[in-house]
Structure prediction request, 106 residues.
Amino acid sequence: MRTSGGSDAALNIPQVPQPEGRFMTATDPTPRMRGFFPSDAPRFAAVCTTETTEGKECGAESSTWDTPMQRDQWMREHADEFGHESFNRSSLAPTTVRVVKAEGAK
Prediction:
């Protein structure tokens, strides 16, 4: 069907058959989402970031402990021994990602 009095250029486009595509269907209609779950106890550590006389960070690292009290004790002892005052504290929480049913899904 032509809607204008234009040229016949569109009529000269070769008609090449296109292959049929596949339907996009969900394999499982149950809504799902990814959940984050602790996989181990949290761990605590610290790094000294005080600038030394050479212009570099001290970089001393504590061990990794199960409680923050041990990390904080290390920081106090390092500060007493070297006079350093700047630290980065970290809490590491090992986590596992699993696919779970979405809330409200049946």
Summary: The radius of gyration is 32 Å.
